[in-house]
Structures are given as structure tokens and as C-alpha cells.
Here is the input.
Amino acid sequence: MASARGELPPWVDLGLIPLLNLVVALLFAGLVVLIIGENPLEAMWIMLKGAVGSLKGWGYLLYYATNFVFTGLAVAVAFHAGLFNIGGEGQAYFAGLGAAIVGLGLEFLPWPLVIPLAILASMLFGAFWAWIPGYLQARRGSHIVITTIMFNFIAGSLMVYFIKDYFRPVGRMAVESREITGAYILSFREIGLRFFDLRLPSTPLNLTVFLAIIAAFVVWYLLWRTKLGYEIRAVGANTEAAIYAGIKPQRIIIITMAISGALAGLMAVNEVLGVQHRLLLEYVGGAGFVGIAVALMGRSHPVGIVLAAMLFGLLYQGGAELSFAKPLISRDMIVVIQGLVILFMGALEYAFRPALAAIFIKAED
Amino acid sequence: MTPAIELIGIDKRFGAVHANKDVTLSIAQGSIHGIIGENGAGKSTLMSILFGFYAADQGEIKVKGQPVSIKSSSDAISHGIGMVHQHFMLVDPFTVLENVVLGAEDGKLIGPALAKARQELTRLAQDYELDVDPDAIVGDLPVGLQQRVEILKALFKGAETLILDEPTGVLTPDEADHLFRILGQLRDQGKTVILITHKLREIMAITDHVSVMRRGEMVATKDTKKTSVEELAELMVGRRVLLRVEKGKAKPGEVVLDVKNLTWKDRKGTPRVDNVSFTVRSGEIVGIAGVSGNGQSEILELISGISRPTSGQIVFEGKDIGILGDPRHVREEGLAHVPEDRQHRGLIATFDASESSILGWHYDETLGKGFRLDRQAVISRCKAEMQEFDVRPADPLLTSAKFSGGNQQKIILARELERDPDLLIVGQPTRGVDIGAIEFIHKRLIALRDQGKAILLVSVELDEIRSLSDRILVMFAGKIMGERGPEANERELGLLMAGVTEDAA
Here is the structure.
């Protein structure tokens, strides 16, 4: 049977190939470091030590990873329905509006009530921002890639307007809201101090990290253990077959985009309620786009996404340390390294596959 | 005389699959040589190696006694080998002439090549009954003519040996006869033809020699005159097979499906189904014959709710289901649908078999309450269906794409029949299915009929229609040209399929 061509055992497909791609990406990154006149091995060591060599490093790594899990899951869910949601950035940004409205407007409520409400509002606002492109795709045929990109810009402008004209306290110079005190999600440092009399290093890592793990599980359950998930995957894998089965692709597209936007919206929980405790400009900072790389690398599976998000967390944190230690290597260099990782993990995902397949067939004979 | 083509000890593996095992084949100059075998027997792989799509792991190819190395299709062409693929490799918006010179443009300007091609086409048309208007747009031509363009393309590039892969699947019996006449003339002019097919009748009708492949091996090469359909079938399958379907007389009951003045127009407003009326009763199989693309597929889509009629009614057990236009509701009314296009509609290639085996029935409460989908229930149900329908391998977790055509079809059939429908509509039930599975599927359909179920069968295989149906409707250009009994002869049906009615004939 010809379809069995180039069949590889799962551990190669899911383990060895991503690892190999990562190694090659790092080799190339090392080459770039070498060209600008630094020692790549030393640079690598600084990055690793900065990210996983201390509790502080881990704190930052996991904080970044929390954001990337949300945006990565958002991309992955849409991807399972055959949709390429590039609007995680805008959805996460717009969701901050929901978080802030509830966080500031309902702060008279006790925290066990206002925090879930604020989380819900973040999801709803994110969902709404993705629902519009979903609706336009399903009913009007406007391509989701184009509309979600445009919605990133629209969200950017709208948020400036809202924050500047409605959230900024009178007389404040900085374009940001006043502090959100009701829906205040505690950081690990604060928990350590308050409940365990433990001095943890100061990092932005907060309880939202558990929400990320829950979200990953829920996404897995949704996709592989519910009828809706079955329909989402059917539409993504083969729309014709889905129609035959009585599934309405338009409906699934709209629902899936809303779910995707809600997941991206959770990032606002981490940033607005867990770290900044206020609504401020540009807090998403590219995490929406990193989510695309995370989803690609994690093969759109929640477990893969959690691992990929941690890798990118490592790159972010280690990169920050590296640019601090080695002024020659600027933050832009880190972006280059991340770009290389994306290139090899995503675009060149199958570059080494044929060669590996050949080796395995030889070994079998 | 030196053979035109010799394949010696060809061996090819795809991973764990041994597609060609030490295959040796010699094809005489100026003959028509048939290659038959079930799906997956290795016919296509062997021809792909000859045409340069794959490289053999071992073995040698000789053209006219000379060892050659064929690494790409252009190598093959330069050695005088041409191929007409099952799915045509034509550029639809181009003219016949432009398609013919494609890949043989000779230089930067297209003018001289076109002029030369025009001359050559006129000659080929005279020599081989291969007339096609050189300035016609290929996309506008009927499939029979498109196939001729493919043949012309190969001949224009100097093909001495022509490989045809399942050439008659898309043709009316009449067009097929014409094709065979062309092939006969090519042979008489000294060309060599290799015909890959699964239709034993064609082999008997046209070839000089026939080679049978089974599981990657060349099991026999025979003189066509000295063999029989029965012998070839046995060689293909490796055991005796029943080619005729055994069935008793139908006992039609009440009308289950009543289609009244059904019309469906496409976006351009062209009626693709044109005022069609017919009934299907319980306990009978009604077959719709016709060349593919004459509205049969649209009828299946309309009845199954995938598309909505422009006008007319589809009354199923007293209820108009046409207005529902929803496959799910139609299914809930008790209708099952085995779609024509197994790969693209019947299942989801990337899903595992258990997930494909609930497609369309996935919202069933027995597979999980409410929104949940109970994976264990799905798998155990699939497992039971696989045993009942003898699906091999009986592994619910194997990816759907990895099953052979016959086993995929059994998975679909099992899924549709297990829900005990009152009406089964089924399109091309045995397309690309091996003989063993065909026998099984046909028996199942007859058994279903004998249980008193109604079956509407659409197939482009006239033999299948004739052996299964109790009544035969023939479609042409969206209309039903007439109804015949199963005893109708092939010529009569062939004329109706070509749109010729008694009055005109």
C-alpha cells in the first residue's frame, strides 16, 4: 500500500524530529552569535542558567509560558477547524477591556465572586473579538487570515482610545487605568509571604499559571472527548465529509473562532489581573504571535503546546539575561534566535523527515 | 523479435510494504498487453517505475533490448514511453494544441511548435481516428475527447509505447469501443500498448497478452486467446470467485421513496437534474446507470440532504425531506447514505477508523450523553462492526487512510447499515474495491433488499447495475432517458446512456 510510504514510529515523529529541528535551529543561532564575535557556547550557557538556573529564572520562564499556553491553545483550536487565527494578539488585547471593566466596575463585590467574573469577562471580550472575523468568514467568505490581522490593528487603536479617554484617572500622565484592587490575582511571591512566611524571588509568576494548565486540559477534552470537538476536527480535516455528516461548517467556524478568542483572552487574566493590576497599553507584547509558533511546534496538541510554551518561555527569559550579560547581543538577537526556532520547527518541519525515513527503512531490512 | 519493453527483477519497497517483488515482464513490440490485478497488487507501482515516477530498489529496464536508466518522466518520454493517466494531466483553459505542445515547446517562441503540432495532429487524426478540434478549449471537451488529447500528447512526443491507466472508467460503452478501435490501430501501425485495468471484459476484448499481478508478484502471463475470465479472476484473487451475483426475485412492497419532478440548477442556472421522477419500493434495488457527470451524483446529494432541490419533491415515507436540506435530519428519518466519493466524503482520511465509523452518527446518544463523546463506546462499536463486516485489519485505532479501498468501503457500509435504515442510497459501492470485497458488498446489498429494505444504487459500472438492480433507470444530461428491466442488454442501455432514445434511433 503506497500510503504506508515513509511511515515512522510515533516517537520519531513526535520526539526525535522536533528535537533535531531544535538542535539545528540552535546551531544556526550559534553561528550568528559567532559572526557577531561572541562565544556561542558561553551565550548558550548564560541563556540556560538565566532561565533554569535559579528560582527567579523559573518564575519568569513559567510566567512567559503561561501567556504562550493561552495564545498557543487559541491558535491550535482554530487550526483544528482548518482556520488560521492570526488575531490572538488583538483578541488578548481586547480581552483586557473585559478584565478591567469587571475588575474596576465590580470591585465592591468580594474577590471569590469578582475574580471568576473578571476571568469570564476576559474570555467573553476575547471571544467577541474573534467571533466577528469568524462570522465574516462563515457568512461572507472574508478570509480569516486577512480579517484577524486587520482586527489586531483595530484592537490596537480602540484600546488606546478606551484607555486614554475612559480608564485614565484625571490628571494622570501615564496612559493606563487606576489599580485594579478587587480582582487581584496573587503572585507566588505574595502567597509565599502571606501564607507560608516564605521569601520567594520577585517574579511576575502568579496563580494564573494553574488556569493555563486547566485550559490545556479543557482544550484536550473538548477536541477529543466531545461531540463538538469531533465536529471541529471533522470540519478542519475534511469539510466535504463534515457536510455529508450533517455538520454545518459555518456554524462550527463561528463557534471555533469564539472559543479560540476566549482562550487568547485568558492572557489578559495573567497580565492585567495577575501582573500589572491595571489596564495599560501594549501589554500583549507579541505573545499573540508567539502563540502561532507555539501551536506549530506543539503540533496543535495541548501537551505539545505546554512544552513548546515552556521552551519559548526559556528563550524569552534566557534571552533577556543574555542581552543583559552581553551587550553585543541585543534583544533583537533574541528575536533572531526565536525566528530561527520558528523557521526550523514550523516551516522546515519536514526537512529531515525523508532522510530519517530512509535510515529507518535501512535499519529494518 | 526484440521485445519493446522488458522489466527484469523489479523490486520496490515502501517502508514495510513490498509493492513489487522481483517482477519480470516482457512486452512484445506491436502488441496490446493487459495488466490486471486487485487494488494494491502493484500494477500502478510497476508502471510508475517504468514511467520514472519512482526508482526501483533493484532490477533492470530494457527498451528494445537496450538497458536504460529511467529517473524521471522526461527520461521515459525520451525512450519513447508515453502515459495516459487515470486522472488527466491537462490544462483546462488551454486549447488542444497548447496542451499537446506542453513540455515540447522547442525554444522560446511558441509559434513554430504550434504550427508543427497542428500538422502533426492532422496526420494523427487521419491515421488513428483521433480527431479533435485543435483549437477547442480542453475544459469544454467531454471526457472522451480529453482522453484523446492525452493520447495525442503522448504520440506527439514520439511515444512508441503507450501506457493507459484504467482508461475506460470515465467513458460510455460507446466511447470505450472507440478507444479500443484507436488502440487497435495503434497496434496495427507497430505501436505497443500497455493497458492497466481491473475490468476483465476489456482484457478479453482487446488485448493480445495479459499479465496478472497479485500482492506485488507477477503470477502469470497468458495469451489472451488461451485464457478465460474465470481463470484470470482466480489468478487475481488467488481463489475461486463468484462473478455473478446470486439473487432471487425481488418482492417489492410499498413505495418508500417517491421523487417527484425533481430539479436542481447549478449557480449558472443550468439544470443538472432536470424534472426527474421515480419511485423506490421496499424490497427492491433500483439502479441509476449513466456516464459519470450526468446528474447521478446530484441526485444522491439531493436525496441525502446535502443540497436542496430547486423545485420538486423528495417524499420519503410520506414526508417531504427535500425541504429539510439537512443530512442530519434526513438520516434521523431513517435514510442511510454510502457516498460516491469514499476518500473525500465517506470517511476522514486522517481520523482513526473508529472516528470515521461514527461520521454522521456521532451525535447519537449511545455514543455519549449530551455533549460528551465516549471514546470507549466508539471504539467498541467500531470493533463490533469490523468483525461483522470482516474488515481487515480489525483495528479501530488504525488511521482510516491506511485501510485498502475495499476495507474502507466495508467500514462505511457497516456504519450505514448498522443503524437499520429503511432506505439505503449508495453511490459507486465498489469503485476501487478489490474483487473479494466486491463479492462481499454485493451479497450484503442483496441481503438488505431481501430484508425488505429499499435501495437506490448509482454506479457507472454497467455490469454492477445490471447484476444488482431489479429496475434500471438510465440518466443522461440530468434527465431520465428510460427505465429497463435487469434483462436489458448492454447495447440498449449504452444507447440510452449516450442520450439516444428509441424514437431517435
Remarks:
- The CA atoms of residues 125 and 131 of chain B lie 5 Å apart.
- Chain B has three domains: 5-237, 246-334+421-505, 349-419.
